[in-house]
Amino acid sequence: MKRIQIMILAAIAALSFIKAPPALAQDTIRALSSESVIETVKRRGVLKVGLSTFVPWAMRDVNGDLIGFEVDVATKLAEDMGVEIELIPTAWDGIIPALIAGKFDVIIGGMTITPARNLTVNFTDPYSGSSLGVMASTKASEGMAWPEDYNQPSATFACRRGSTPCAYIQQAFPKAVLRQFDDENQVLQEVLNGNANAMVAAQPSPAFTIYENPEAAFSPTDEKIQPSAEGFAVRKGDPDALNFFNNWILVNTNNGFLEERHDYWFGGRPWADRVAQ
């Protein structure tokens, strides 16, 4: 009899547990969502976006304002959230630590999705894709064959510090000298001035620069190096943010916005006269 009573009490307790969760679940959901960066942005009324300047993702126009593909994406995202946009230019090698430290809400900066980065931040679904390209100095690299002559102690590469191209150069050209800079323009100038044999960067920056400087630079290879996918980066432990950003990317992929903006900034240079020299 005592065993039966225990079983009945256990069954009642189980039924009570089943009935209780709706209220408890709602409280839990509210508590979790209130911690999301999405709720923080809504309360603040401003979306803070971290990015780094490099053509044509984000760059300064003749008035000193930021323009570019990432700027258009971030601006549209903020508009769809009903908030203002604050763009926070950040050195590339410090952009992930700055995100983790709460300096901004999300990175929208052409960041390639990699397993190593994913250990530190969470990535959304891809919203853009690209590959690496090579630009070589006409003066410094005359007569050099790609890739064998560039993997020598006498060869020098330039890249933007903390970027995917730096890692690629270190792996593919371990014998070469590698000079790293904080700004993409410094990398380009190092090659154009003949101080480095070549640079590797995300396209279309190398292609655009060669087009503008045909006497000073050329492409030693037409190979598409390391085709990649880019995503927004967010702090870990925020499923609401990932859900919202992923759905925003889905909607704006389907409605053509992302493709149209990508074609404008990457398909040619109709914006060239807007950019500060």
UniProtKB/TrEMBL annotation:
Segments forming domain Ionotropic glutamate receptor C-terminal? 46-268
Question: Which compartments does it reside in?
Answer: Cell envelope
Record-linked SMART domains: PBPb, PBPe
Q: Which GO terms describe its cellular component?
A: cell envelope; membrane
Among Pfam families, the record links this protein to:
SBP_bac_3
UniProt GO MF annotations: ligand-gated monoatomic ion channel activity
User: Which superkingdom?
Assistant: Bacteria
Q: Which PANTHER family match?
A: GLUTAMINE-BINDING PERIPLASMIC PROTEIN, MEMBRANE-BOUND LYTIC MUREIN TRANSGLYCOSYLASE F
- Member of which family? Belongs to the bacterial solute-binding protein 3 family.
Q: Which InterPro entries match?
A: Iontro_rcpt_C, SBP_3_CS, Solute-binding_3/MltF_N
Q: Which residues form the signal peptide?
A: 1-25
Q: Which protein is depicted? A: Amino acid ABC transporter substrate-binding protein (PAAT family)
Give all residue intervals belonging to the Solute-binding protein family 3/N-terminal domain.
46-269
Alphabetically ordered keywords of this record: Signal
